[in-house]
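User: Can you predict the 3D structure for this chain?
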Amino acid sequence: MRGRFAFTAVRLFRAPLRSLNTTL
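Assistant: Here is the predicted structure, written as structure tokens:
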């Protein structure tokens, strides 16, 4: 369960960075 939580956290954390990268 902890690994799954980390995976979801990473996805939620990287999603905004990706959109920011695309915008820039």
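The chain has one helix and no strands. Residues 2-23 form the longest helix (22 residues).
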